[in-house]
């Protein structure tokens, strides 16, 4: 139950007051409610949005030193999500993740993270100078994707690294798969260190029982949530939820101030404020609708020859503790099409744009923005595509085992700032990589900056290339060469 009246929208209300006062703007932005803006853009977006594109002043409050409506909006968000403080990020969850990492580790300190982290985690590690200790997530070779890490993996890694200062996990993955986060939180806390969570794909968790448990419900210490990805706020607006037991909340504010612009968009912040109100007051009913539409889509897609859409059937598999059914992962290898090909056919022939695709799958993100009609169009398009391709092309084979995590001799930051040179792949064996090499599937780095490139890794890259699978991450798009650190 909430302690505050969640129907309030203090940031949006302060902007409405500014508009209703008919304020004469002698402040930035220079377009001044759109008057000074070219009509090419203004005529399309309309003047309402421009009239609330303001800057820091008392009526609308300051993100860096909140004392008024922004402070109230943060308190409301903390109340809605069950944290002690909710910070607003106008640099998406990437910015919030960097702040989380800077709040828990300093240069040289260890942080335990899954190998399949988003690049914002790596940038947080580079910025902090911390030393990553990687955990291998569970890999599902059938659908070619990485799921969560198991509590056993977390426990083993902590036993081997009792000096680690924090653990980060993903809840849930891009594909909606959640690990046993409650158990993981208990294990991490038994070492008296914080559990921080990349909850980019989970700002809707915790508002309905049918979804996996949220990081805050599980007792995590911090989580970064892309409110803009899954619920109703605008792109770039995210929350960073913090619990005060193991984390210094004032220091998190300082770190957010260090990283964020002094000109945050009030349009974004107001949309975040209203999105929190929406999910807190109507989330259950809206999410129920989104889940039933997505489950209907899953059922129908599973009837289409050559397509597969995982659901409850994979629960209990390694790294799959719970599932977010609104994520619709369509595995299309049975059609002999790669996910990239299906993505392009949907976009070009049907004007349906999916969220992302990999070798085996396309990911359609469901939300309470879907309608019966939009879901119906997706199903009809997939039926037509199946009719055209099913049985005409060889089925794509299973993912190959990835090499073991190589030895690390430099921190990612040392490798990032080190003196580097470009060498042919074969000449890189035994050298320290200054770049990533990512294998698709399952989109996991096989080498990270600071790690020693092995024979096994280079052989694996060759196998992937021969099988027409994907390797990426190097500056050289063909992955013929790789940047290595020159060590004197
Ligand atoms: C797992 C994960 N974490 C973090 C991010 C970063 O979120 P944002 O785009 O809000 O910066 C993403 C973005 O796709 C993501 O997939």
Number of separate strands = 21
* CATH C-level category of the largest domain: Alpha Beta
- Class computed from helices, strands and strand pairing: alpha+beta
| Overall outline | globular
Q: What's the architecture of the largest domain, going by CATH?
A: 3-Layer(aba) Sandwich
Query: What small-molecule ligands were found?
Result: pyridoxal-5'-phosphate
**How many strands, what sense, and barrel or not for the largest sheet?**
7 strands, mixed
What share of residues are in beta strands? 15-25%
CA distance, first residue to last residue: 61 Å
Tally of separate domains: 3
Average the pLDDT over all residues and give the rounded result: 95
Number of helices: 15
> Roughly what percent helix?
25-40%
Rg (CA only)? 23 Å
Strand order of the largest sheet: 1-10-9-8-6-2-3
In CATH terms, the superfamily of the largest domain is Type I PLP-dependent aspartate aminotransferase-like (Major domain)
Q: What does this entry show, briefly?
A:
With 488 residues, the chain is an alpha+beta fold. The protein is 36% helix and 16% strand.
Q: How would you describe the overall organization of this protein?
A:
The chain has 488 residues and is α+β, with helices and mostly antiparallel strands. It has three domains: 10-280, Type I PLP-dependent aspartate aminotransferase-like (Major domain) (Aspartate Aminotransferase, domain 2, 3-Layer(aba) Sandwich); 283-389, Aspartate Aminotransferase, domain 1 (Alpha-Beta Complex); 412-485, Ornithine Decarboxylase, Chain A, domain 4 (Alpha-Beta Complex). The protein is built from 15 helices and 21 strands. The protein has helices at residues 10-20, 39-45, 47-51, 69-81, 92-104, 119-128, 151-160, 181-190, 227-230, 249-259, 266-301, 339-350, 372-389, 412-417, 455-466, and strands at 85-89, 110-114, 131-135, 139-140, 145-146, 166-170, 177-178, 195-199, 222-225, 238-242, 308-309, 322-323, 327-331, 356-357, 361-365, 420-424, 432-433, 437-440, 444-447, 470-472, 481-485. It has a seven-stranded mixed sheet with strand order 1-10-9-8-6-2-3, with helices on both faces. Helix 11 (266-301) crosses helix 13 (372-389). It starts with 9 loop residues before the first helix and ends with a strand. The model has no long low-confidence stretch (mean pLDDT 95). The chain binds pyridoxal-5'-phosphate (PLP). Pyridoxal-5'-phosphate binds at residues 92-94, 97, 118, 120, 170, 174, 198, 200, 226, 238.
